[in-house]
Amino acid sequence: MTPTTLSINRAPVLTLWAAVVAQRLGFLWDESLSLGRALAGLNAQSKGRRLGIFKPAEARKAEHGEEFWIEVCGRPVPAKQTPEGIRAVKGKAIVTAEGTEAYLEAKFGDHLDAARLAMTTLAKAYRPAELAVQAFRLYEQFRPAIPEGRKGWGAKGVLELKKIRAMARR
Q1: Among positive and negative, which fits the CA dihedral 102, 106, 111, 116?
Q2: What's the structural domain count of the chain?
Q3: In which domain, by residue range, is 22 found?
Q4: Does the predicted model carry a pTM greater than 0.70?
């Protein structure tokens, strides 16, 4: 039986959604996983700085030609070409697809396939160019509700897969 709701933190939800969006925009699934994980990390860092949890990070200047930027869900993500394909980078480290897959499996558990299917159905309801513009707004409509401010940091909320599937029937 397909679950309709699950209790989960926002970070893995954004990671999975951004990966699904990137795949819909033409990236391979492994590339999409890397980009999705990096995007969620960038959002967490921004929120953490805004809440005073993290200090502002020092900018790192990339070597000429080393990195390029890929926009996912309205946000530029640093990436580079590797022998395995495009991968996001965090500092000097490559964000691996394998690590991201393990992270999603740990966070979603048995509900990962159902969540991915619901999100994929929603992404396919939009032409790629339209999805590229609307992706973050769509996420804001279905992401788990959590308390405002520091109380919400790391808190779980309810993700309603039924809502995501309904959004796809627009």
Answers
A1: negative
A2: 1
A3: 5-167
A4: yes
